Amino acid sequence: MPSNLDQQAIDILRSNDRGGYTVPTARLYPYQWNWDSAFVALGFATFDLNRAWRELELLLDGQWCNGLLPHILFRQNDPDYFPGPSVWCTPNQQNGGGKFPSGGISQPPVLASIVRMLIESGGDDSRGKALFEPMLKWHRWYHRDRTPDGFDIVASVHPWETGRDNCPDWEPGLSRMAVDSDIEAYVRRDTVHSDPSQRPSKEQYDKYVTMIKFGRDVGWDQRRLTNEGPFLMADPGIHFILLRADRDLLALAKRFGREDCASEIQGWIAAAEGATNTLWNPELEAFCARDVRSGAFSCGFSSASALCFWADAGTDDQRAATLEHMRRIQAKVTYMLPSWDPDAAMFEPQRYWCGPVWPQMNHIISRGLAEQGEHDLANRIRDDLTALITKSGFRECFDPLTGEGCIGKDFSWTAAMWLAWLSPRAKTEAA
Ligand code: GLC
Protein backbone atom coordinates (compact mmCIF):
# COMPACT_ATOMS: atom_id res chain seq x y z
CA MET A 1 0.00 0.00 0.00
CA PRO A 2 1.77 3.25 -1.07
CA SER A 3 2.09 5.93 1.62
CA ASN A 4 0.26 9.22 1.28
CA LEU A 5 3.27 11.02 -0.18
CA ASP A 6 4.00 8.10 -2.53
CA GLN A 7 0.43 8.27 -3.77
CA GLN A 8 0.59 12.07 -4.22
CA ALA A 9 3.81 11.70 -6.21
CA ILE A 10 2.26 9.04 -8.45
CA ASP A 11 -0.81 11.25 -8.96
CA ILE A 12 1.41 14.21 -9.95
CA LEU A 13 3.25 12.17 -12.57
CA ARG A 14 -0.03 10.82 -13.91
CA SER A 15 -1.65 14.24 -14.09
CA ASN A 16 1.38 15.81 -15.78
CA ASP A 17 1.39 12.98 -18.35
CA ARG A 18 0.44 14.30 -21.79
CA GLY A 19 0.26 10.91 -23.49
CA GLY A 20 3.70 9.31 -23.19
CA TYR A 21 5.65 12.37 -22.16
CA THR A 22 5.42 14.47 -19.02
CA VAL A 23 5.31 18.25 -18.60
CA PRO A 24 7.39 19.58 -15.67
CA THR A 25 4.28 21.29 -14.26
CA ALA A 26 1.00 22.39 -15.79
CA ARG A 27 0.82 25.95 -17.25
CA LEU A 28 4.28 27.35 -16.33
CA TYR A 29 6.07 24.65 -18.40
CA PRO A 30 3.58 23.16 -20.88
CA TYR A 31 6.03 21.12 -23.04
CA GLN A 32 8.52 18.26 -22.73
CA TRP A 33 11.84 19.37 -21.22
CA ASN A 34 15.02 17.39 -21.81
CA TRP A 35 16.63 16.69 -18.43
CA ASP A 36 13.27 16.83 -16.63
CA SER A 37 12.13 13.83 -18.68
CA ALA A 38 15.26 11.87 -17.81
CA PHE A 39 14.67 12.34 -14.07
CA VAL A 40 10.96 11.73 -14.46
CA ALA A 41 11.67 8.32 -16.01
CA LEU A 42 13.27 7.24 -12.73
CA GLY A 43 10.00 8.04 -10.95
CA PHE A 44 7.78 6.21 -13.45
CA ALA A 45 10.09 3.21 -13.27
CA THR A 46 8.99 2.65 -9.67
CA PHE A 47 5.43 1.85 -10.71
CA ASP A 48 5.26 1.60 -14.51
CA LEU A 49 8.51 0.61 -16.22
CA ASN A 50 6.98 0.63 -19.68
CA ARG A 51 5.91 4.26 -19.17
CA ALA A 52 9.44 5.15 -18.02
CA TRP A 53 10.96 3.92 -21.29
CA ARG A 54 8.22 5.65 -23.26
CA GLU A 55 9.22 8.99 -21.69
CA LEU A 56 12.78 8.55 -22.94
CA GLU A 57 11.77 7.25 -26.36
CA LEU A 58 9.54 10.28 -26.91
CA LEU A 59 12.33 12.58 -25.76
CA LEU A 60 14.74 11.12 -28.30
CA ASP A 61 12.05 11.43 -30.93
CA GLY A 62 12.79 15.15 -30.92
CA GLN A 63 16.47 14.72 -31.85
CA TRP A 64 17.83 16.74 -34.76
CA CYS A 65 19.70 15.17 -37.70
CA ASN A 66 22.99 16.55 -36.34
CA GLY A 67 22.46 14.82 -32.98
CA LEU A 68 21.29 17.86 -30.96
CA LEU A 69 18.71 16.85 -28.37
CA PRO A 70 16.82 20.11 -27.74
CA HIS A 71 16.07 21.52 -24.32
CA ILE A 72 12.32 21.77 -25.12
CA LEU A 73 10.13 19.86 -27.56
CA PHE A 74 7.14 21.80 -28.85
CA ARG A 75 4.79 19.05 -29.97
CA GLN A 76 1.95 21.56 -30.11
CA ASN A 77 1.81 25.32 -29.75
CA ASP A 78 0.75 26.70 -26.39
CA PRO A 79 0.30 30.49 -26.59
CA ASP A 80 0.60 30.60 -22.82
CA TYR A 81 4.38 30.01 -23.01
CA PHE A 82 7.13 32.45 -24.01
CA PRO A 83 9.41 31.97 -25.92
CA GLY A 84 7.45 29.44 -27.96
CA PRO A 85 8.10 27.78 -31.33
CA SER A 86 7.59 30.92 -33.43
CA VAL A 87 10.36 32.69 -31.51
CA TRP A 88 12.86 29.83 -31.79
CA CYS A 89 11.96 29.19 -35.42
CA THR A 90 14.13 26.07 -35.67
CA PRO A 91 14.63 24.18 -38.97
CA ASN A 92 12.38 21.30 -39.98
CA GLN A 93 13.69 17.81 -40.64
CA GLN A 94 14.34 18.45 -44.36
CA ASN A 95 16.61 21.30 -43.29
CA GLY A 96 18.50 19.40 -40.62
CA GLY A 97 16.19 19.95 -37.64
CA GLY A 98 13.86 17.56 -35.84
CA LYS A 99 10.45 16.04 -36.58
CA PHE A 100 8.66 18.86 -34.81
CA PRO A 101 9.52 22.38 -33.59
CA SER A 102 11.86 22.68 -30.61
CA GLY A 103 14.36 24.91 -28.91
CA GLY A 104 17.68 25.34 -30.77
CA ILE A 105 19.93 24.60 -27.78
CA SER A 106 20.37 21.56 -25.55
CA GLN A 107 20.32 20.81 -21.81
CA PRO A 108 22.41 18.83 -19.29
CA PRO A 109 23.02 15.34 -20.73
CA VAL A 110 21.98 13.18 -17.76
CA LEU A 111 20.14 10.75 -20.05
CA ALA A 112 22.83 8.07 -20.49
CA SER A 113 23.42 7.99 -16.73
CA ILE A 114 19.72 7.50 -16.12
CA VAL A 115 19.38 4.81 -18.79
CA ARG A 116 22.23 2.97 -17.10
CA MET A 117 20.51 3.29 -13.71
CA LEU A 118 17.26 1.92 -15.15
CA ILE A 119 18.99 -1.02 -16.75
CA GLU A 120 21.14 -1.87 -13.77
CA SER A 121 18.15 -1.79 -11.47
CA GLY A 122 16.52 -4.52 -13.52
CA GLY A 123 15.13 -2.55 -16.46
CA ASP A 124 14.70 -3.93 -19.93
CA ASP A 125 17.98 -4.26 -21.87
CA SER A 126 16.26 -4.21 -25.25
CA ARG A 127 14.45 -0.90 -24.65
CA GLY A 128 17.72 0.63 -23.40
CA LYS A 129 19.73 -0.78 -26.29
CA ALA A 130 17.45 0.93 -28.81
CA LEU A 131 18.35 4.27 -27.21
CA PHE A 132 22.09 3.73 -27.43
CA GLU A 133 22.66 5.03 -30.97
CA PRO A 134 20.71 8.30 -30.52
CA MET A 135 22.43 8.91 -27.19
CA LEU A 136 25.82 8.35 -28.83
CA LYS A 137 24.86 10.84 -31.57
CA TRP A 138 23.88 13.39 -28.93
CA HIS A 139 27.19 13.05 -27.06
CA ARG A 140 29.02 13.33 -30.38
CA TRP A 141 27.10 16.53 -31.03
CA TYR A 142 28.11 17.94 -27.64
CA HIS A 143 31.78 17.16 -28.18
CA ARG A 144 31.85 18.32 -31.80
CA ASP A 145 29.48 21.29 -31.91
CA ARG A 146 29.90 22.70 -28.41
CA THR A 147 33.68 22.58 -28.22
CA PRO A 148 34.66 26.05 -29.48
CA ASP A 149 37.51 26.33 -32.01
CA GLY A 150 40.80 26.72 -30.20
CA PHE A 151 39.55 25.39 -26.84
CA ASP A 152 39.39 21.94 -25.36
CA ILE A 153 36.33 22.27 -23.14
CA VAL A 154 32.64 21.87 -23.92
CA ALA A 155 30.82 25.19 -23.46
CA SER A 156 27.25 26.50 -23.41
CA VAL A 157 25.80 29.16 -25.68
CA HIS A 158 22.85 30.13 -23.49
CA PRO A 159 22.31 29.97 -19.71
CA TRP A 160 19.21 27.85 -20.41
CA GLU A 161 21.45 25.22 -21.98
CA THR A 162 23.02 24.60 -18.56
CA GLY A 163 19.62 24.00 -16.94
CA ARG A 164 20.59 26.55 -14.25
CA ASP A 165 18.94 29.43 -16.03
CA ASN A 166 19.55 32.56 -13.97
CA CYS A 167 22.36 31.44 -11.67
CA PRO A 168 24.79 34.30 -10.88
CA ASP A 169 27.38 31.97 -12.48
CA TRP A 170 26.52 33.54 -15.84
CA GLU A 171 27.40 37.12 -14.86
CA PRO A 172 30.85 37.15 -16.52
CA GLY A 173 29.25 36.14 -19.84
CA LEU A 174 26.14 38.30 -19.54
CA SER A 175 28.06 41.40 -18.53
CA ARG A 176 30.18 41.18 -21.70
CA MET A 177 27.17 41.10 -24.02
CA ALA A 178 24.74 43.77 -25.15
CA VAL A 179 21.03 43.48 -25.77
CA ASP A 180 20.36 43.40 -29.54
CA SER A 181 18.34 46.54 -30.26
CA ASP A 182 16.44 44.62 -32.99
CA ILE A 183 14.81 42.09 -30.67
CA GLU A 184 11.08 42.34 -31.13
CA ALA A 185 8.82 43.40 -28.26
CA TYR A 186 7.63 40.43 -26.25
CA VAL A 187 5.38 39.60 -23.33
CA ARG A 188 6.73 37.21 -20.73
CA ARG A 189 4.37 34.53 -19.48
CA ASP A 190 6.54 33.12 -16.68
CA THR A 191 5.87 36.15 -14.49
CA VAL A 192 2.12 35.64 -14.91
CA HIS A 193 2.29 32.03 -13.71
CA SER A 194 4.69 32.55 -10.83
CA ASP A 195 5.91 35.23 -8.44
CA PRO A 196 8.07 37.72 -10.48
CA SER A 197 10.40 38.22 -7.51
CA GLN A 198 11.43 34.56 -7.87
CA ARG A 199 12.06 34.77 -11.65
CA PRO A 200 14.88 36.29 -13.75
CA SER A 201 15.00 40.07 -14.23
CA LYS A 202 13.90 41.97 -17.38
CA GLU A 203 17.48 42.77 -18.44
CA GLN A 204 18.46 39.14 -18.13
CA TYR A 205 15.44 38.18 -20.21
CA ASP A 206 16.36 40.66 -22.97
CA LYS A 207 19.78 39.04 -23.15
CA TYR A 208 18.26 35.55 -23.28
CA VAL A 209 16.12 36.70 -26.21
CA THR A 210 19.18 38.28 -27.88
CA MET A 211 20.94 34.89 -27.82
CA ILE A 212 17.92 33.22 -29.40
CA LYS A 213 17.83 35.90 -32.10
CA PHE A 214 21.48 35.20 -32.91
CA GLY A 215 20.74 31.47 -33.29
CA ARG A 216 17.81 32.25 -35.56
CA ASP A 217 19.87 34.71 -37.62
CA VAL A 218 22.49 32.02 -38.36
CA GLY A 219 19.78 29.45 -39.17
CA TRP A 220 20.71 27.49 -36.02
CA ASP A 221 24.10 26.60 -37.47
CA GLN A 222 25.40 25.10 -34.23
CA ARG A 223 29.09 25.65 -34.86
CA ARG A 224 28.53 29.29 -35.69
CA LEU A 225 26.41 29.68 -32.60
CA THR A 226 29.27 28.28 -30.49
CA ASN A 227 32.08 30.16 -32.21
CA GLU A 228 30.43 33.49 -32.92
CA GLY A 229 27.43 33.74 -30.59
CA PRO A 230 27.03 36.47 -27.97
CA PHE A 231 27.46 34.15 -24.95
CA LEU A 232 29.94 31.32 -24.37
CA MET A 233 30.60 29.92 -20.95
CA ALA A 234 31.99 26.63 -19.70
CA ASP A 235 29.86 25.25 -16.89
CA PRO A 236 30.96 22.78 -14.21
CA GLY A 237 27.40 21.39 -14.36
CA ILE A 238 27.57 20.50 -18.06
CA HIS A 239 31.22 19.47 -17.82
CA PHE A 240 30.74 17.04 -14.93
CA ILE A 241 27.36 15.72 -16.07
CA LEU A 242 28.73 15.03 -19.56
CA LEU A 243 31.88 13.40 -18.20
CA ARG A 244 29.77 11.13 -15.99
CA ALA A 245 27.39 10.41 -18.86
CA ASP A 246 30.33 9.52 -21.14
CA ARG A 247 31.52 7.03 -18.52
CA ASP A 248 28.00 5.57 -18.33
CA LEU A 249 27.70 5.48 -22.11
CA LEU A 250 30.97 3.54 -22.25
CA ALA A 251 29.59 1.00 -19.75
CA LEU A 252 26.44 0.71 -21.88
CA ALA A 253 28.54 0.27 -25.05
CA LYS A 254 30.27 -2.69 -23.41
CA ARG A 255 27.00 -4.15 -22.17
CA PHE A 256 25.35 -3.86 -25.57
CA GLY A 257 28.29 -5.23 -27.57
CA ARG A 258 29.11 -1.83 -29.06
CA GLU A 259 32.85 -2.01 -28.46
CA ASP A 260 33.24 -0.37 -31.87
CA CYS A 261 32.49 2.98 -30.14
CA ALA A 262 34.63 2.39 -27.07
CA SER A 263 37.76 4.19 -28.23
CA GLU A 264 35.79 7.23 -29.39
CA ILE A 265 34.08 7.52 -25.99
CA GLN A 266 37.35 6.90 -24.14
CA GLY A 267 38.81 9.79 -26.13
CA TRP A 268 36.05 12.12 -24.88
CA ILE A 269 36.60 10.98 -21.31
CA ALA A 270 40.34 11.55 -21.49
CA ALA A 271 39.83 15.00 -23.05
CA ALA A 272 37.33 16.00 -20.35
CA GLU A 273 39.60 14.76 -17.57
CA GLY A 274 42.38 16.86 -19.08
CA ALA A 275 40.12 19.93 -19.30
CA THR A 276 38.73 19.72 -15.75
CA ASN A 277 41.41 22.02 -14.39
CA THR A 278 40.24 24.79 -16.72
CA LEU A 279 37.26 25.19 -14.38
CA TRP A 280 39.29 25.37 -11.19
CA ASN A 281 39.15 28.89 -9.81
CA PRO A 282 42.37 29.16 -7.79
CA GLU A 283 41.20 32.23 -5.91
CA LEU A 284 38.00 30.67 -4.65
CA GLU A 285 39.43 27.14 -4.59
CA ALA A 286 36.37 25.71 -6.27
CA PHE A 287 35.18 24.51 -9.68
CA CYS A 288 33.44 27.54 -11.17
CA ALA A 289 31.76 28.58 -14.39
CA ARG A 290 34.13 30.41 -16.73
CA ASP A 291 33.70 32.77 -19.63
CA VAL A 292 35.54 31.00 -22.44
CA ARG A 293 36.66 34.07 -24.38
CA SER A 294 37.76 36.33 -21.52
CA GLY A 295 38.82 33.56 -19.13
CA ALA A 296 36.91 35.30 -16.29
CA PHE A 297 35.61 33.04 -13.54
CA SER A 298 32.32 33.23 -11.77
CA CYS A 299 32.85 34.19 -8.16
CA GLY A 300 30.78 31.81 -6.07
CA PHE A 301 30.33 28.17 -5.15
CA SER A 302 27.23 26.82 -6.91
CA SER A 303 25.54 23.45 -6.56
CA ALA A 304 27.22 22.50 -9.87
CA SER A 305 30.64 22.98 -8.21
CA ALA A 306 29.76 19.96 -6.06
CA LEU A 307 29.25 17.67 -9.06
CA CYS A 308 32.95 16.75 -9.28
CA PHE A 309 32.12 13.72 -7.13
CA TRP A 310 29.38 12.60 -9.52
CA ALA A 311 31.93 12.80 -12.35
CA ASP A 312 34.70 11.19 -10.29
CA ALA A 313 36.88 14.14 -11.31
CA GLY A 314 39.39 16.52 -9.80
CA THR A 315 42.47 15.94 -7.63
CA ASP A 316 42.38 14.94 -3.96
CA ASP A 317 43.13 18.55 -2.99
CA GLN A 318 40.37 19.90 -5.20
CA ARG A 319 37.86 17.47 -3.72
CA ALA A 320 38.96 18.33 -0.17
CA ALA A 321 38.51 22.05 -0.89
CA THR A 322 35.07 21.34 -2.40
CA LEU A 323 34.04 19.51 0.79
CA GLU A 324 35.29 22.46 2.85
CA HIS A 325 33.00 24.79 0.91
CA MET A 326 30.05 22.48 1.50
CA ARG A 327 30.73 22.37 5.24
CA ARG A 328 30.98 26.16 5.35
CA ILE A 329 27.65 26.44 3.53
CA GLN A 330 26.07 23.76 5.73
CA ALA A 331 26.68 25.98 8.74
CA LYS A 332 24.77 28.84 7.06
CA VAL A 333 21.60 27.19 5.83
CA THR A 334 18.89 24.97 7.24
CA TYR A 335 18.57 22.86 4.09
CA MET A 336 21.35 21.68 1.80
CA LEU A 337 22.45 22.29 -0.90
CA PRO A 338 21.62 25.84 -2.03
CA SER A 339 22.10 26.48 -5.73
CA TRP A 340 24.23 29.54 -5.01
CA ASP A 341 26.70 30.40 -2.27
CA PRO A 342 25.03 32.21 0.67
CA ASP A 343 28.32 34.07 1.23
CA ALA A 344 28.52 35.35 -2.37
CA ALA A 345 27.00 38.46 -3.93
CA MET A 346 23.57 37.98 -5.52
CA PHE A 347 22.45 35.21 -3.15
CA GLU A 348 18.66 35.28 -2.91
CA PRO A 349 17.05 32.33 -1.13
CA GLN A 350 13.87 32.36 -3.21
CA ARG A 351 15.00 33.52 -6.64
CA TYR A 352 15.20 30.46 -8.82
CA TRP A 353 18.92 29.47 -9.29
CA CYS A 354 20.26 32.27 -7.03
CA GLY A 355 19.83 30.23 -3.85
CA PRO A 356 16.97 27.68 -3.76
CA VAL A 357 17.59 23.96 -3.31
CA TRP A 358 16.77 21.95 -6.46
CA PRO A 359 15.59 18.33 -6.06
CA GLN A 360 17.30 16.80 -9.10
CA MET A 361 20.60 18.49 -8.21
CA ASN A 362 20.47 17.12 -4.67
CA HIS A 363 19.97 13.67 -6.17
CA ILE A 364 23.05 13.55 -8.39
CA ILE A 365 25.24 15.48 -5.93
CA SER A 366 24.32 13.13 -3.09
CA ARG A 367 24.78 10.00 -5.20
CA GLY A 368 28.19 11.25 -6.33
CA LEU A 369 29.27 11.97 -2.76
CA ALA A 370 28.09 8.53 -1.61
CA GLU A 371 29.95 6.81 -4.44
CA GLN A 372 33.14 8.57 -3.33
CA GLY A 373 32.64 7.55 0.31
CA GLU A 374 31.46 10.96 1.60
CA HIS A 375 28.44 9.51 3.36
CA ASP A 376 27.80 12.22 5.95
CA LEU A 377 27.29 14.97 3.41
CA ALA A 378 25.54 12.63 0.99
CA ASN A 379 22.99 11.67 3.67
CA ARG A 380 22.52 15.25 4.80
CA ILE A 381 21.73 16.37 1.24
CA ARG A 382 19.29 13.49 0.79
CA ASP A 383 17.60 13.88 4.19
CA ASP A 384 17.22 17.64 3.77
CA LEU A 385 15.30 17.11 0.55
CA THR A 386 13.08 14.57 2.30
CA ALA A 387 12.38 17.17 4.99
CA LEU A 388 11.67 19.88 2.40
CA ILE A 389 9.15 17.80 0.49
CA THR A 390 7.51 16.62 3.70
CA LYS A 391 7.21 20.21 4.89
CA SER A 392 6.32 22.06 1.69
CA GLY A 393 5.12 19.52 -0.85
CA PHE A 394 6.26 18.71 -4.38
CA ARG A 395 7.48 22.18 -5.33
CA GLU A 396 9.92 23.08 -8.12
CA CYS A 397 12.61 24.20 -5.64
CA PHE A 398 12.90 25.34 -2.02
CA ASP A 399 14.20 28.20 0.12
CA PRO A 400 17.35 26.83 1.85
CA LEU A 401 16.79 29.03 4.91
CA THR A 402 13.07 28.62 5.65
CA GLY A 403 12.17 25.51 3.66
CA GLU A 404 9.36 27.33 1.88
CA GLY A 405 8.48 25.90 -1.55
CA CYS A 406 9.22 28.13 -4.58
CA ILE A 407 7.85 28.67 -8.11
CA GLY A 408 6.03 25.66 -9.66
CA LYS A 409 3.69 23.35 -7.73
CA ASP A 410 2.99 19.64 -8.30
CA PHE A 411 6.34 19.36 -9.99
CA SER A 412 7.24 16.23 -11.93
CA TRP A 413 10.94 15.84 -11.10
CA THR A 414 10.26 16.47 -7.42
CA ALA A 415 7.64 13.70 -7.46
CA ALA A 416 10.05 11.44 -9.34
CA MET A 417 12.90 12.06 -6.90
CA TRP A 418 10.56 11.18 -4.06
CA LEU A 419 9.49 7.90 -5.62
CA ALA A 420 12.89 6.80 -6.89
CA TRP A 421 15.09 7.99 -4.05
CA LEU A 422 13.51 9.42 -0.91
CA SER A 423 10.36 7.47 -0.16
CA PRO A 424 10.82 4.88 2.61
CA ARG A 425 9.71 2.37 -0.02
CA ALA A 426 12.58 3.40 -2.36
CA LYS A 427 15.07 3.08 0.49
CA THR A 428 13.85 -0.41 1.43
CA GLU A 429 14.04 -1.53 -2.16
CA ALA A 430 17.56 -0.12 -2.61
CA ALA A 431 18.79 -1.79 0.62
C1 GLC B 1 13.53 25.88 -15.64
C2 GLC B 1 14.80 25.24 -15.06
C3 GLC B 1 15.28 24.12 -15.98
C4 GLC B 1 14.15 23.13 -16.18
C5 GLC B 1 12.87 23.82 -16.67
C6 GLC B 1 11.66 22.90 -16.68
O1 GLC B 1 13.77 26.50 -16.84
O2 GLC B 1 15.79 26.19 -14.89
O3 GLC B 1 16.40 23.48 -15.44
O4 GLC B 1 14.52 22.14 -17.07
O5 GLC B 1 12.55 24.89 -15.83
O6 GLC B 1 11.46 22.34 -15.41
For this structure, the CATH topology is Glycosyltransferase
CATH classification class? Mainly Alpha
Unreliable parts: none
Per DSSP, the total helix count is 17
Shape: globular
Give the total of domains: 1
CATH architectural arrangement: Alpha/alpha barrel
Number of strands: 8
Helix content: 40-55%
Structural commentary:
The chain is mainly alpha-helical. The protein has a single domain (4-430), classed as Glycosyltransferase (Alpha/alpha barrel), CATH 1.50.10. 47% of the residues lie in helices and 4% in strands. The protein has a two-stranded antiparallel sheet. Strands 3-6 form a two-stranded antiparallel sheet. A two-stranded antiparallel sheet has the order 4-5. A hairpin with a 4-residue loop joins strand 4 and strand 5. Helix 11 (236-255) packs antiparallel against helix 12. The model has no long low-confidence stretch (mean pLDDT 96). The structure holds alpha-D-glucopyranose. Residues 24, 29, 33, 35-36, 163, 165 line the site of alpha-D-glucopyranose.
Short description:
With 431 residues, this protein is mainly α. The protein is built from 17 helices and 8 strands.
Helices and strands in order, then pairings?
Layout: H1 4-15, E1 32-33, H2 34-44, H3 49-60, E2 72-73, H4 85-88, H5 111-120, H6 125-145, H7 171-176, H8 190-193, H9 202-217, H10 222-228, E3 233-234, H11 236-255, H12 262-275, E4 280-281, E5 286-287, E6 290-291, H13 316-330, H14 359-371, H15 375-392, E7 397-398, E8 405-406, H16 412-422, H17 424-430
Antiparallel strand pairs: 1-2, 3-6, 4-5, 7-8
Helix pairs in contact: 1-16, 2-3, 2-5, 2-16, 3-6, 5-6, 5-11, 6-11, 11-12, 14-15, 15-16, 16-17
Alpha-D-glucopyranose (GLC) binds next to helix 2.
